Give the backbone structure.
Amino acid sequence: MGYSTVLVQRVGAVATITLNRPEARNALDLVMRRELLDVLDDVERDEGARVVVLTGAGGHFCAGGDVKTMREKRHTPAEGRARVELLNRMVVRLVDFPRPTIAMVDGVAVGAGCNLALCCDVVVASDRARFGEVFARIGLVPDGGGTWLVSRAVGLARAKELVFTADIIDAAEALRIGLVTRVVAVAELEQQTRALADRIAAGPPAALAMAKRMMNRAATSDLESALQMEAYAQGVAIASEDHQEGLASFFDKRAARFTGR
């Protein structure tokens, strides 16, 4: 299926989704929001895709909402809500995507673009990447999950400071406060991200999917509920062929060949 604002390519077990509006620094217009939902459906149907890398074309990740369209027309509250509700569906789909996801960030990741990166399980940034919750600069509140995602990553006080000041921070500061997982030289960004993706893709797909779902839910559950879910999921995992393969590879001193069964 062809898309006008995103590209998708699978090499081995890694599917790469590229935001492809470089002329707008990959700003999230309404078409891109819909197409990201569709492309995630396509990738999920592809059983060979074990890990998803989300990135942007043209040296930038995503500049957030399309400010140009905001200026062209003054939106009503109902129109503004509809725009964000479409974004919300994309956020939930990406956060809950049943396979590990990696944001590969170069250039700007600001506003909803910053939050789009945080929807992914891991954020790998180049040393020239920049991040910011810049909504207040144009009189808006955070969207794209920012009120929830940022505080989970950096703590409530730092999240409030980022939102209140609307500062743009560099990759080193983003790493220091925990907004990103790792920072690499821009020349090594693709290679390092691919190496990480390949390493994760070699893991047991079903077990990783269950682990991701449980960790996502842990922030809003109590310990007893988390323990009950661990017991249930481990019961499924311990009876799997992947568990037997993991045991065999351990004792045979070889790499495991997990299948997801």
Summary: The chain has two domains: 6-201, 205-252.
